Amino acid sequence: MYPRALSELIKAFSALPGIGPKGAERLAIFLARENEDKARSLAQAIMRLKAQVHVCRLCGMLSTSQLCPVCADEERDHTLVCVVETPADVAAMEASQAFKGVYHVLGGNLQPIEGIGPAHLNLGPLRQRLESGAINEVLIATNPSAEGEATANLLVRTFKDSKIKFTRLACGLPMGSSLQYMDSLTVSRALAGRTRVEEAEE
User: Fold this and answer.
1) What pLDDT is stored for residue 144 in this prediction?
2) Whether the Cβ atoms of residue 82 and residue 91 lie closer than 8 Å to each other
């Protein structure tokens, strides 16, 4: 029905998270109908993103340098690591201005149905950080969903032999929601009420 170039763009948009076939079709048709300047501007923005933005070598956050601003900040509490799923979760935590530690981005959560297991998460660098002896507490801030809880339990099981204290964000984050959509007050209250995490019983 559509020209090949348009069909390929629809397919490319469909591969992006959160964009279904209909949404991809609308975006592609919009760009096809717009003037060339808008399409060129979008393409240039994507190329600048890929050229300038990298993954922080320590925590996995997106940054324009080898270390993100949080990891490079000597005023932060580097003995307290908050483990989150995505860079968007870091942004949500930072917006609350209540957390003074540093972060570790897993790059997702466990989703066995989708074939996403522990090997797909950024666990190796986290293990290195914990084995360095410089970490006293790990605050698990995975999303309050079934996948987030499974990921939290995985972290506790994986590092249960360490002497590091594991805590979890407390009430204030409703089940089934995403951390990146929480308001600053909700995140602040959840931080203030975090609790120790014990390994889930089999």
Assistant:
1) 79
2) no
